[in-house]
Amino acid sequence: MSNINYRGEIMYANVPSMEIAQELLKLSGIRFYGEKLTFQIKTHPTRADPQSNALDLSALTQDNIIRDMGVESLQDSKVFEAILVLAAQLYPDVATVNLANNGLSSLRPVANLGVHFPKLRNLSLMNNNIRDLRELNCLSASGSKVPLSNLCELILQGNPASEAECQRADGGASYVEKVQQRFPTINMLDMNPVTPRAQPGQPAGNSSVQEAPQTLPFPTAQSFSEDQSINELAVAFLAGFFKLYDENRGGLADIYDQGALFSLMVDTTGPTSEFARTNPGSQKRVDFTTYIRISRNLARVKSHQKRIHALVVGKAAVVQTIAQLPPTFHPVQDAQRFSFDAWRIDVNGALQGVAAVTVHGEFTEQQSRNVISFDRSFMLVPAPPGSAAAAMGSPCVVTNDQLTIRRYNGFHSWLPAETQTVGSGPSPALNLTPEQQEMARDV
User: Which of 86, 118, 151, 209 has the fewest CB atoms within 10 Å around its CB?
Assistant: First the structure.
């Protein structure tokens, strides 16, 4: 036993293993000097998760053990160094370290993170008192002999330095630039995706190995339609839908089925196209908070109840949910910015035809002016006679609407090779036949 201390009639002591504690528990009930003894096991909460290789060193000044040591400030590098040495001996494969809420104004006390945890990939410095991004130098190649060369995620949110950077007129673009100068491998900054400049273990700007260009076995086509009639239906529907979505979302109630389903998914991974790597709009920090609240990203939402709750059911609920999303503008007059596929689906037992339309494109948030890429999949059925959709001239109603959004990734990937030039002149307008124009106006 160690650390024996008394509090009234109770004696507390530490034992090195649970096995010893279980053996002592068997002695409960024996008498000592005529008094009956009772043994109880009380475990200390652990700050390490060996399964995920995570180490939680947040709010250490509130830790009872640290308090008992008489430590009042963590600015002394000796204290942190002792903690890191011990943690590294116990958990040498740590990949995630949480240093949030420690009041750190300097990162010198933790400058040896790379020495003790060479596999570190995720680091949180949230809610400290870092006022200058140059404090990061002692963890990077510019100021450390053993930098965090495998770092993929960094959280600086809640520090004066990051707050000041995000308030700049460039929307935080220079903030990302300054951080990536020090950590070129990060792909997540403050829980927002960024495009890494290098892969872990690879120096930034390493161009010694060039990837061979990929060649598709057939020419690139911007869109696909099963036949001309389904193409006309898709073009007319999309033109009318996005006009209502941008200008009168309440009017969407007329073209959603009574039992329509709607779901939204936020893809927070960084844009990967060659265009996005050099486009300022793709690198700009985007606040997806409004969307994430209702996101049904099954890769992140693991709770069955939350998955069910995130699925919006019924026309009224769908229109109400969509109305709460930020106002947008879809540049449908610039046809090259959109790609769609449309085809018929045979449904067993269905008395009417079903059409699937999937569209890829972009929209601009009216207030933030952020340009966002999206994918949207619709399931369409003919408008029932006498319905509001039929009365307004719409040939179909929406039974299922799935929307996925992500940071801007451009539109050049679906352009035919001969048209993949930027700034070569005005883009072609959406080509509609007179009949299609009439249908779009009606919708």
Answer: 209
Backbone angles phi, psi at 418, to 5 degrees: -70, -15
Query: Tell me, what DSSP letter sits at residue 39?
Result: -
Note the residue count of the chain.
443
Which stretches of 248-360 are DSSP H helices? 274-278, 280-283, 289-292, 304-310, 315-323
Q: Tell how far CA 395 is from the center of its chain.
A: 37
Q: What is the pLDDT of residue 213?
A: 56
pLDDT along the chain (443 residues), means of 10: 72 77 83 81 72 88 71 69 86 92 90 92 94 93 89 93 80 81 90 78 49 63 88 89 93 92 88 74 79 84 82 95 95 92 77 84 92 94 86 87 92 70 37 51 47
Tell which residue, 392, 394, 250, 400, has the closest CA to residue 327. Answer: 250
Task: State the burial class of residue 209 (Cβ atoms within 10 Å of its Cβ: 0-12, 13-18, 19+).
Answer: exposed
- Choose among 264, 271, 239: nearest CA to 370: 271
Say how far apart CA 385 and CA 392 lie, in whole Å: 11
Rounded CA gap, 249 and 354, in Å?
Answer: 24
- Whose CA is closest to 110, among 342, 100, 119? 100
Strands (E), 176-302: 188-189, 192-193, 224-225, 256-266
Given a contact cutoff of 8 angstroms between Cβ atoms, the answer to whether 109 and 73 are in contact is no
d(CA 324, CA 315): 15
Q: Is 26 left (phi over 0), alpha (psi -120 to 50) or beta?
A: alpha
* Sole residue written with tokens 């990203």: 297
At 134, which helix (H) or strand (E)?
A: none
**Maximum pairwise Cα distance, the chain:** 104
Question: How far from 164 is each of 7, 10, 108, 368, CA to CA, in Å?
Answer: 49, 52, 22, 19
